[in-house]
Amino acid sequence: MLSYAASVEPKFALPLVAIGGVGAVLLALVLLRRLDGLLPWAIVPLGIAYTAALAIHGSGVDGRAPLVAVAMLLCAELAAWSLDEYHPIAADRDVVTARAGALGALAAASLAASGLIVALSLAPGSGLGWTVLGAAASVLVVAVAVRLALRASS
Description:
Shape: flat
């Protein structure tokens, strides 16, 4: 994802990679030192680098944004899962299978919903109807995430 952010605007690749590199170093620190509280702060610089690349580039909607979003989601979730594996309580095989399935379903639903939002925003003739449909798709993403989280916690 960081390489994609740098490739969007090659003239500013060095500062973008430096910003994202801070996130990569923080992520390594989180995983090596088991610093759970720093995990969100490890993901934020990656998002900042991507957003800055888009802002500098000056383009409208990035058609690959859903892939970037799912990559960030998977990065954060897999890092959290890695941190959970350090606890001395072994997870049952069924729990691990359910968690992997929930993560896969969340990633697929997020990709589908965000892809729909991006597709609608790129469609010609934007108007109130498209805005309402995009907002509904956003609500759908949150609803699926909450449902999967509740299902995984019970």
